[in-house]
Design brief:
homodimer; about 300 residues; alpha/beta; Rossmann fold; 7-stranded parallel β-sheet; 5-stranded parallel β-sheet; 9 helices; about 30% helix
Chain lengths: ~300, ~300
């Protein structure tokens, strides 16, 4: 019998208890799963970074912290955490992200908004370029960026990917480093930001990088709020350097009613929905790592805390 | 030297002359291509159904009429046409259609409009189903319907296809005939109409078939205007049976300013852009049939005028 602590907000427990029990049973694992367990007896911690649990010192027997979120920036600095940390790589979350990104890329590619909101009832025929004539740039080639690139390639788009260190993704023109970033942004008719939130990526979309995009570019941010220097983005939208932005994540969420993004005519706000974790598939991932821990196999989706992701 | 008559509106000649000359040269065909040629000396007629040419009787030597449009309903009844008629199956047109349909399916799937137009600035988190939990139904499994089905399958959607006669498309649940139509519509959370306009398909979307869709369904019509009984559609939108419709084609185009579709809060009008022919790829298709005619090979994309498509 192993002890699995569920350390997250109560509403998460409501959502996850049954899918987790189902996944444990399907994996043939007998476990005590609860919201409260004596720390020294806990074997695994299923964890959300906004949990009350912030001091991992008493969890002397625990083999791993299994994050419920894809984002780990609120836990990587925790000095009391000395055991392996796995991020959530939920296939359901990835699928949802791919659908959201592909949908909004096509929305900009096709110029849909001019038809969805057309108060003058204008019958104005324009033929957009075909996908194979359109450059989409994805900043960040992790699991999510790569999955989005694959879907966009499948639809025929020209996809350029950028990452801090060199990567190789089939069909994607992969660039890296500072010089590669300028080169990528230069061709970014539609730019999608899917980078993790680290000191190196904070404000990566700023006045200088916005100016490197072609005039009239579109920005889609389903990644992290702090990737964007908000004042610089609004300035670029106001002066027409950017045509429009769709933002799913923000420095403060929910986005305050006073935030200028809400009323900006060139901004679409979506309420942090691009990367929704799906209970069932996420539970299967969490249990897979517990199975691996018990079988002495290496954990999957481990976080390198020095790099911060 | 062969004589190719270009019989379409003058603006088409402006767009097509150079791409056609390029395609002829690339195919190694020496030809006289012009808007006026003595009828008895014409070998091939590149044709738009709204051309002044309506009597084919004097074109005694012509081997084929090569339609510039995908739609042939305005020419299939022409009794003076006794030579092979080929429809336009432009790979560029097909790609554009796939992009337009995929974009609007994703738009409905993701509930984008609630974010694009959100005057109350509501941060309202809802998680849409994943594509593999969403039923998309395509009425019509010709070249366009099949290509759209492929793209939607690639994104993970459950795709049902319906056609008058039995068809088999990989990955698509193919239904046919009257019973199959009811069955298909029953599961149609998002219905895409890509049928040809024939006597059998006129008003196929009517009060009865609209009632067979699940309540709150979405309709996307990039096919033909007469597929829809407009009064029945507006009634279904008014009473909530349908949640929203995106219409690209209409009985009268441009859609008159007095048409109720323009101001309807549950309708998006797009100006017949889903199936735009692309000059370059279309010219290559036209020249391929001329090459085949000269080589004695069978023409591609021939129309069966008895069936009307």
């Amino acid at each position: 019998m192993i002890n699995i602590l569920f350390a997250a907000r109560p509403e998460r427990w409501t959502a996850y208890e049954q899918p987790l029990r189902d996944a444990l049973q399907a994996a043939g694992i007998t476990a005590h799963l609860a919201e409260e367990i004596t720390p020294a007896e806990v074997d695994y911690i299923i964890y959300a970074p906004n949990s009350d649990l912030q001091d991992f010192t008493p969890y002397t027997r625990a083999k791993a912290v299994l994050n419920l979120w894809a984002g780990v920036e609120r836990i990587t600095d925790n000095k009391t955490l000395r055991i392996p940390l796995a991020r959530m790589v939920d296939p359901g979350l990835t699928k949802g992200m791919v659908e959201w990104v592909t949908g909004h890329v096509l929305r900009y590619h096709l110029g849909m908004d001019a038809h969805i909101v057309n108060p003058a009832h204008e019958w104005h025929v324009t033929t957009p370029p075909l996908a194979h004539e359109r450059n989409v740039v994805i900043l960040g080639l992790g699991a999510l960026g790569t999955a989005c690139a694959d879907a966009l390639l499948g639809l025929g788009f020209r996809v350029t990917g950028w990452s801090r260190s060199p990567k190789n993704v089939k069909g994607v023109d992969c660039l890296h480093g500072d010089a590669g970033l300028s080169q990528a942004l230069n061709r970014g008719e539609i730019v999608v930001t899917l980078l993790p939130d680290t000191p190196a990526t904070t404000d990566i979309i700023n006045a200088q990088t916005l100016a490197q995009m072609p005039r009239g570019a579109f920005l889609i941010n389903p990644g992290r709020g702090p990737l964007i220097d908000d004042d610089a983005l609004i300035a670029a939208l106001d002066n027409g350097q950017l045509a429009h932005a769709t933002l799913d994540v923000f420095r403060t969420e929910p986005l305050p009613q006073t935030d200028p993004y809400w009323a900006h005519p060139r901004v679409t706000v979506t309420p942090h929905i691009a990367a929704a974790t799906r209970d069932k598939t996420a539970s299967e991932q969490l249990v897979e790592n517990i199975r691996r821990g018990e079988a002495g196999e290496p954990f999957i989706n481990l976080v390198d805390r020095k790099l911060g992701y």
